[in-house]
Specification:
This protein has 5 helices and no strands. Helices cover 49% and strands 0% of the residues. The longest helix is centred in the middle third of the chain and has 23 residues, at 72-94. With 163 residues, the protein is an all-alpha fold. The relative contact order is 0.17. The chain has helices spanning 36-40, 49-68, 72-94, 128-145, 148-161.
Amino acid sequence: MPFNYQQDFHTVNFRQHPEHYRVGKGEQGVLLVQPYKGEILPHWRFRTPSVARESSEQIYALFEAYLKANDFVGADMARKFLQMGFTRARRYANHRGGKKYDGPVPDDKKGQSGSHGRAELPRSPEDPEKAEAAAIFKRKWDEAKQHPDYLRQRAEFEARYGK
């Protein structure tokens, strides 16, 4: 099932109500789903390769703890933060200042992925430090999405609550 952006994310506790969670595509909901956003976001950093390494290791440790607790929603959110570490570091590697699209995000599209009809800005010369930070997150993200317990719990979650 697609990610549902119409939910009241301010009141739903997804640990208590995993039936309301949808995996969606990519990073959908990464900055909305509580209490996981609050638990993972403080560890998410990618400014330099050493910061990215520490951050990705902390988030991966949370990922493993969620799996051990049989908390698929938490594990999936940690996976999304690892993915977002990769994509945001790549954005900064390609676009000085991190701004990829021209103009503001329309109010009704805030929190959602995509250009929303905005033009992509030209790329800057690649920032090798941000590119290395992105590669660090990419390795951890790949490891997470292929983890056998993650794959098993995802299949069980989707069988129970739908795709």
